[in-house]
Structure formats: structure tokens, C-alpha cells
Amino acid sequence: MSQPQLDDEREWPIAKRLAQRIAAFDAQDLTPRALAAARTAIIDTIGVTLAGSAEPCVRILLDTPGIADAPGKCTVLGTNVRTSALDAALLNGTASHALDYDDFSQPMGGHQSVPLVAPLLALAEERKLSGNALIAAYVIGIETEIRLARAVNFHHYDKGWHPTATLGIFGTVAATSHLLKLDSEQIATALAIAASLAAGLKANFGTMVKPLHVGHIGRSGLFAVLIAERGFTANAAAIEHRQGFFNAFNGPGHYDAQRIFENWGTPLEVESETLGLKQFPCCGSTHPAIAMALALVHEEHVKPEQIESIHIQAHRRRLPHTDNPDPRTPLGAKFSVQYAVARALVDGVVRLENFEGDAHLDPRVRRLLAITRTDPHPDMPEDAEHQFGAEVTLTLRDGRVLSRRIDNLIGRGPANPMSTDELWEKFADCSKRAIGSSEALALYERLEALEEVSDVSTLARLLAKRVLPGGDVAKQKLEVSSAPERKSEETAWVP
Q1: MmgE/PrpD C-terminal domain spans which residues (predicted)?
Q2: What are the phi and psi torsion angles at 381 (to 5°)?
Q3: Beta bridge partners of 394
Q4: pLDDT tens for residues 298-330?
Q5: What is the Cβ-side half-sphere exposure of residue 43, based on CA atoms within 13 angstroms?
Q6: What is the DSSP string of 189-256?
Q7: In the chain, what is the straight-line distance between the N-terminal and C-terminal CA atoms, in Å?
Q8: CA torsion, points 84, 87, 92, 97, in degrees to nearest 10?
Q9: pLDDT in 10s for each residue of the chain, 495 residues
Q10: CA-to-CA distance for 24 and 477, rounded, in angstroms?
């Protein structure tokens, strides 16, 4: 990856140093692995955005005066609404995180794709830009936000900030400014503006505000880029200033700015083993245990009626937010490792429908919840390099004891990629809810060759809900595919 050669660069403000790298990045710097990883992540994010487009948090935003009322060419995914790029970034960004089904990253302590995809799609649709340019912009956005995460985490996360938002906004700026081909001075200004617009508190996890964080920073990051493009000013040292982002958000001594630039782009962060897609539509911290439960079902042919007791042992960082033995709402079930494991043992799959309606009250699952014990794993230390491990042990009524263990499973990343069939199954399950099965297949096929799309706006027809025969567009503004209402439930969790 090409980098500017700057002898005195260490004396420059961080925003300027970052801006030089963002401006210098070129689509030709994409390795085949980076291209494939970026394309897959973008497809996955579009799928979960379509699924989330019917969620109450998005419907409320659509019904709020002043939102989506601005004229524009940008599609609100899964609806027939078109609006400005800023409002599309807000609405689609919120939808993309509404179901917590989007990809995530260990070093970021959050979700890396959702701060990028909605604003990039809006901008590319509005300005008729290419799929290849969008992919390159996505990759530099990932590089920027995760490099900043390496500088501030995990103190940043533990202090109470939501990194998907507070760090993701810098990814939004990097990606959208690159897509617009801003120069390095404009990019530095946009990054400095973003330092003042960054926001997101973990106190609001478990409520509609969590996905709103993503919509808000997607809109704010794009807003920062658009006003910087027009000559707005900001302090280029706003990130490292004594009263700037690092010191206000983390505090002196709790960050290492140099980690941003060490071995920049070699390899690209998008190629990292620490990024993973979500195969299951629930908290990522439950995924290692789900995978082990499914292994027992499929390899040992265990039936739920055979089980006498269940013991879940997970890395202790995975439990504060998922040790929920008696979930009473669909949202609570998403953050219950006990429920997720029980559902895997009962059905042999874990799907969106398992976190809707009264699925969490299924008597078969409730029987297993009553015989489940959960503990931190004694062989997985808190400061271990790998922190996404779990072991599931089943005691059967015939006396057999069966177990499966994995020491690190950050979703389905490069070391354990989802198969083509698995990727399509997830995309279809998500997108058919909003646009129908045949449109979902057509969209998926186009997105599989996204780098060959010369004008992203040509995808708009496939991203939108069809207008109902004889329907009034205004009346259909909220007429997205139905989804059950979800009660908010306070909970503390990580991706």
C-alpha cells in the first residue's frame, strides 16, 4: 500500500498524518484478499440493513417530521422512500445495526462495517459513482477506524464509549472523503470536525439508541466531509490536543497514538483474522458457544430430550453482557448465551425468527434453560491474546458426557469463512423480508460483482421496496415489511 514519504511527519497533527494516507490510497492497492473481504462485508451489511429496515427504531425515524423529508436521490433501503444523502445515511445506518446482525472486530471493540456502508451507498447513488470506487473507500475507512481503535482500546471501551460510533465516525469520514476524492487538507479538516461530532454511550445498549448511534455518526461523518469540502474550518490538532479527542475520551496516559501508524496498510486491516461476519443474529459473544452446541448436534447427533444438564464455560469477557439465564423479551434472548445455546440444541440452527415474537418462551428451550449452568472458563485468562472462546459440555441421560471447545471464534473470519451457501442463506433470510425472494436473488448476484458496477445508482431499484399496486407513496412511507415490536431492555454487552 503506497504511503507518503514525510521526513518530519511526526511533528504534524494526527488528522493531517491520517489524511495523507487516506488521500494516497488507491484502488490499485487492493489485494485480491482485500477485495474479496470488502465485497463480502458490504454484501452482508446490505443484507442486514434490509432486514433492519422494518424495525421500530427505523419506523419511528421515518415518521419523525424533518427526517427523510429533504428532496434527494438516495434510497432508504427496503422502502419506497428517496431522500437526501444525509438522511439516507441516518436511516440506513440505523437499520444496519438494528438487529445486531452485522460484522464485528475484536480490536475495534465494535462493528466495523456499519459506520461505512450506509453513507457510502448514499453518496455513490447520489453522485453515480462506481462500485470499485465504493470498495476502495470502504477499505480505507476500515483501516482508519481500526487503527484508531488500536490506539485507544480497550480503555476506551471499558470507560463506557461505544466504539462503533465514537471511532466509527472517523471511518465514515475516511471512506466518504476518499470516495469524493477530497484533498488531504480537506480530509484533515473533516477528521477534526468529526472529533467534535463523535458520540455514543454504552449506557444506552439494549435500547433503540444503540442502532441510532450508527445512523447518527454515519450522518455526522458525511456531514463533516460535505462541509469540509466547501471550506469549513477546524483545528487540525483536535484529536491529540490537550482538550481534544484522545484526552477527553480516554484521558492522558490511556492511549498510544503511534499505534495508528505502525506498519500502516501492511497488511490491510480488512484482511485481518480479527474481523468476522455474524453467522447468527445475536450478540457476537454468544457465537463461540453456539458453534460448539451446533457441533455437538451435528457431529454427535444429540437430541434435546436426551440432555440432562448443560454447562457453558466462556471467556470471562464474553459473560457480563450475555449471562442471562431467563430472557423475557426477544431482545433479552439476543444477549443470552443460555438461550442461544438452548436454541441451537433444539433446532440445530439459529435464525432471525428465533429472536422474534414468543420464540424465547418455547417450552423445549425453557426446559434446557432450567438445566443450564454458566461460568467463566478457568483456562481462558482475561488478558489472553484470544478472548472469544467457549466450551459446551452436555451430560446425557444415559450417562455420557460430551463436550466441544474452541479458543477463539470471532464470528466467521478469514480463518473460518462462511461458505457461499451460508452467505447466501443469511442474505436471503435478511433481504426477502424487505424486498421479496426474487429481488433478493437478483440483488445478491449484482453485488457479487460490485467492483464491475459502473454506476451504483443502478442498484437502487433492487434495494427498494416495490410500490404496491394502486398505492400512494406517501401512505406507504412506513409500509415496510412487518416485524414484531421489541421492548427495550437494559443490558451491557459487547458485539
Answers
A1: 280-441
A2: -65, 155
A3: 310, 402
A4: 999 999 999 999 999 999 989 988 999 999 988
A5: 27
A6: HHHHHHHHH---BGGGTTSTHHHHHHHHHHHHHHHHHHHHHTT----TTTTTSTTSHHHHHT-TTS--
A7: 29
A8: 160
A9: 545 555 567 789 999 999 999 999 999 989 999 999 999 999 999 999 999 999 999 999 999 999 999 999 999 999 999 999 999 999 999 999 999 999 999 899 999 999 999 999 999 999 999 999 999 999 999 999 999 999 999 899 999 999 999 999 999 999 999 999 999 999 999 999 999 999 999 999 878 999 999 999 999 999 999 999 999 999 999 999 999 999 999 999 999 999 999 999 999 999 998 899 999 999 888 999 999 999 999 999 999 999 999 999 999 989 988 999 999 988 889 989 999 999 999 999 999 999 999 999 999 999 999 999 999 999 998 878 788 899 999 999 999 999 999 998 888 888 888 889 999 999 999 999 899 989 999 999 999 999 999 999 999 999 998 644 444 333 444 443 333 333 333 333 334
A10: 41
Residue 372, H or E segment? strand 372-376
Q: Is-contact 270 359, C-beta < 8 A?
A: no
Q: Residue 296 and residue 103: Cα distance in Å, rounded?
A: 25
Structural domains of the chain sorted by starting position, each given as residue range(s) with its CATH number in brackets: 9-276 (1.10.4100.10), 284-406 (3.30.1330.120)
DSSP-assigned letters across all residues of 297-325: HHHH---GGGEEEEEEEE-GGGSTTT--S
Give the total residue count for the chain: 495
Give CA–CA dist 390/386, Å, rounded. Answer: 11
Q: Which amino acid is at 409?
A: L
Dihedral of alpha carbons 211, 165, 222, 176, sign: negative
Within 53-183, residue ranges assigned H as helices are: 56-62, 85-97, 114-127, 131-152, 155-159, 163-166, 168-179
Residue with cell 489472553: 384
